[in-house]
Amino acid sequence: MQAGLVVGSGGNLSARAPGADECWVTAAGTWLDRLDRGSFVRIRITDGAALDSNAKAAPSSEFALHLATYRARPDVNAVVHLHPQTVLLLDAIGEPIRLVTTDHAFYLRSVVTTPFVPPGRTEVGALAAEACADGTNCVVLSRHGCSVVADSVELAHKRAFYLEEAARLTYRMLLLGRPVEPLPTDWLTPGATA
After folding, report:
1. pTM to 2 decimals?
2. Minimal CA–CA distance to 78: which of 150, 5, 171?
3. What φ, ψ does residue 92 adopt, rounded to 5°?
4. What is the predicted pLDDT for the residue at 29?
C-alpha cells in the first residue's frame, strides 16, 4: 500500500508449488497488507474447483486471471495482480512504460498492454494469459491494473515494484519533455546479471 501498488482491498495474489494443479488465491475483499492463513482459498487450476470444503471465503473475483495464467505458463508459480497508480495513469493517457534502467530491462524485459475489459470477467484472464504466453512477465490490464508473474513470489513482487518504478520514471520524463533513448539490448545476454 505504501508503495502505491494497491489501494484498500484492490489487487490479489496467488502462488502454487512448482507443477502443482492447485494454487492458493487471496480471498475476496482481502487487504494485501493484512494477510494471514485465512486470507487464501485453495483452488484446482484445471477446473477452478475450490478444494477446501470448509473455506470461509470465496476466492478473489479475479481468480480466473490466476488460473488462466498458470494454464498458459507452466513455469509460473506466482501471479500478482495490483492496481499501481502510475502504471494506470500512463495507460489512461496512452503512454507506454519505458524501460529506463538496466534493472527494468533485466527483470521486466517487456511490458504488454491488453484492451479494457470490466474487472471480474473471465475475458480479463484470457487476455492476460494470451499476453504472457510468449514469456512476457508484465501485463498492463488497461484501465484496471497489472498482472505480474514469476517462478517465485519474491520475484513477482520485485517485478511489480520495478514496473511501477519504470512507470514513475516514464512519467517524470514526460513532465520534463525529454525522451529516453532505449537501452541497448545486446548487453542482456544469457547468464548476465543485474
Report:
1. 0.89
2. 150
3. -65, -30
4. 82
Residue 143: which of 92, 81, 97 has the closest Cα?
92
Q: Which residues, other chains included, contact 20 with Cβ-Cβ below 8 Å and sequence gap of 6+?
A: 45
Domains of the chain: 12-182 (3.40.225.10)
Q: Give the model's confidence band at 145: pLDDT under 50 very low, under 70 low, under 90 confident, else very high.
A: very high
Enumerate the β-bridge partners of residue 50. 43
Cα 161 to Cα 2: distance, rounded to the nearest angstrom:
11
DSSP states along 10-76: --EEEE--TT-SEEEEEBTT--TTS--GGGEEEEETTT--B--TT-SSPBPTTHHHHHHHHHH-TT-
Report which of 5, 6, 23 is spatially closest to residue 125, judged by C-alpha positions. 23
Cβ-defined contacts of 7-13 (< 8 Å, 24+): 7/83, 7/85, 10/82, 10/83, 10/145, 11/80, 11/81, 11/82, 11/83, 11/145, 12/60, 12/62, 12/63, 12/66, 12/81, 13/78, 13/79, 13/80, 13/81, 13/153, 13/156
Question: At 193, is the secondary structure helix, strand, or coil?
Answer: coil
**Which DSSP state fits 94?**
T
pLDDT digits (tens, 9 = 90+) for 45-82: 999 998 876 566 888 889 999 999 999 999 999 999 99
